[in-house]
TrEMBL record:
Keywords: Cell cycle, Cell division. This is Cell division protein ZapA. It comes from Flavobacterium luminosum. The keyword Amino-acid biosynthesis does not apply. InterPro entries: Cell_div_ZapA-like, Cell_div_ZapA-like_sf, Cell_div_ZapA_N.
Length: 98
C-alpha cells in the first residue's frame, strides 16, 4: 500500500491542497508546471483575459494530445499486429514441418 502525501499544487495562481500516493507526487507537480507554462503561452500569444477561457484551452490541448496518441497507437498497432500474426503463422508452419 502506497504512503499518502499531502502536497499543494499551484495552477493559474490558485493553490490546491491534495492528498496523493507518494508515487503520484512527481507526476502531479510536473503536470501543474506544464499547465502553468501553457497558460502563460496562451496569455502571451492571444488576447485572453479570462482565466477560465485559458484553462479551457489548456484542457482542450491536453485532451487533444491524448486523443492523437490513441489514434496513432491504434493506427500503428493494427498493421503491426497483423504482421506479427503472419510471422507467427510462418514460424509455426516451419516448426511443424521439422
Amino acid at each position: 500500500m502506497s504512503e499518502k502525501q499531502k502536497i499543494k499544487i499551484s495552477i493559474a495562481d490558485r493553490v490546491y491542497p491534495l492528498t496523493v500516493d507518494a508515487s503520484q507526487e512527481e507526476g502531479l507537480i510536473n503536470a501543474s508546471k506544464k499547465i502553468d507554462a501553457m497558460i502563460k503561452q496562451f496569455e502571451q500569444n492571444y488576447a485572453v483575459r479570462d482565466k477560465q477561457d485559458v484553462l479551457a484551452m489548456c484542457a482542450l490541448q491536453f485532451a487533444a494530445q491524448v486523443e492523437q496518441k490513441q489514434i496513432e497507437k491504434t493506427t500503428i498497432e493494427g498493421p503491426t499486429k497483423t504482421k506479427l500474426e503472419r510471422l507467427n503463422n510462418l514460424l509455426t508452419e516451419h516448426l511443424d514441418k521439422q
